[in-house]
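Let us practice reading a record.
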Amino acid sequence: MSESMEILRLFESDSRMNKFQDLFKQLICFLSEENIEYVIIGTVAYSEYAPPRATTNINFMISKSDCYKLESVLKEYEIDFIWNAYQQLIIAVKDESDETKKYPLELSFQSTHKGLTLSQPIPKEIFSVADVPVASPEILVALWCLAASNGHSKSYYDAQMMIKLKLADVDRCIAVIESLHETNANKVLRSILTGNAMYVDTINMEEALMMPSELIQTHEEIELAKAHRYNAAQEHRRKLYEEIQQAK
């Protein structure tokens, strides 16, 4: 098999995505039947409000008590999972072949932070499943500010973009973050609102305001970049198809 044909086969025939979607639908049914309250957070939630991003993980947030209830349900249905170092419950969609996949497809569950609730989610359609509760932009900003305050600098830019694109109400963000006790999330939000950016891997909260950011794009620039990537991918796929036809 030529290299081009192999690339196209991997591009079009990776059955893990179908398994990933089927498992997501199955889990949504489990959660509903077991009355386990949840919301979708992370990149999938971000993409419901802002220009979409690629991801290999769907992240759920549920209450701490429901985490252990979910664990029992998964054992009952013989669905494999692990608890990672961050106390997240991870379900990985495995590849049946011997090939090693660089990017594993995962569904992850984490418990709500003290002071945070699952109230007022926004229903969205995900993988043809209607009314899936997705966290509001304000909840997402609060979670990312919390993560940034714990040293995850990438989360800073997620929160910053949501504020920059005016997708989250600042007053509501402040109200949510004030409910998070014993955190520095408020400092992170303050640095966003004052137009400064954190750029180090491990954030020193004693230096909460650093340098002006030049990393933020306008909404128009994001859309143009997204369109360019899409067109480039389509052109690449067209060329691969032509090579396959010529090889026959």
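A brief commentary: The radius of gyration is 20 Å.
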